Amino acid sequence: MALKSLFTLATAFALLAVLAEAHSWADCVDWRFNDPAKPGWTDKHGKCHGWARQYPVNSGVRFGGLDSSSPNRHYQQDPDDFIPCSDKNHGNEPGADETRQNPISRAYGGRFGSMASVKAGDSICVRWPAKNHAVKNEQDRGVFINMPPTPTTRDPNQSQLTKMNIAKLKYKNCNQISGDSDHTPCGGCFKIPDNRVAGTYMVQWRWELNDDEWYTSCWDLQVTAKNPPVQPGQPGESVARPLSGSTSIFAELAED
Questions:
Q1: How far apart are CA 181 and CA 165, in angstroms?
Q2: For the region Disordered, what residue ranges are annotated (predicted)?
Q3: Class of domain 2-228 (CATH, top level)
Q4: Which region among 10-19, 214-223, 238-247 has the lowest average model confidence (pLDDT)?
Q5: What is each CA distance from 169 to 83, 125, 139, 144, in whole angstroms?
Q6: Minimal CA–CA distance to 123: which of 204, 222, 32?
Q7: Cβ-proximal residues to 225 (8 Å cutoff; 6+ apart), any chain
Q8: Domain locations along the chain
């Protein structure tokens, strides 16, 4: 009987440890709904078309399970330095390598997921696992989406990124799975500002669990212009023509 009680206590403590260490990350950074009229975050609701830097898409690990991998995907920033993207070494909870690669394309393709893409002015959606933090009695402090106003040659620091916030999402926007608050899928959508020029941008997903306790994910986003310039010979091209049938504007002026 005593042995059974000890086993029960050990199991309970192990479960509490798992719950305490369950922290989230951006699982998909370009989530597209199968039916926009019926949005949702489970695999039956949509499909992922873009991932964070060096995200292992063929790991065989179930959704929300990469916090048990080595290196794991959740990264908790250290308040002493607030490194914006995990480098595998720093942080209160170091995560997988999400530093900027050179060239950027090294972080995508092959065993890694593809880079996300979007048109300026359009919306894009991000998905993440609840990790036991989308329950009723827990405060929703939100997810912050930070993005520089122009393409950059290196990642901004956290102080700079905080001033580059373009959206705040509800963390607890989820499709609740009964009996499994750990792997419950959540997500949110945000608009890319209209004035973003074409180029590759760094984007940061930053979730505040408790006061000054932050978890981040980083990715590169290929943005195309909202209204790309029409190239010569394409439909809609505006062709400059001489005034009044003249072959030169100077000839037109000479006739006055």
A1: 28
A2: 66-105, 226-247
A3: mainly beta
A4: 238-247
A5: 22, 10, 14, 6
A6: 32
A7: 119, 120, 197, 198
A8: 2-228
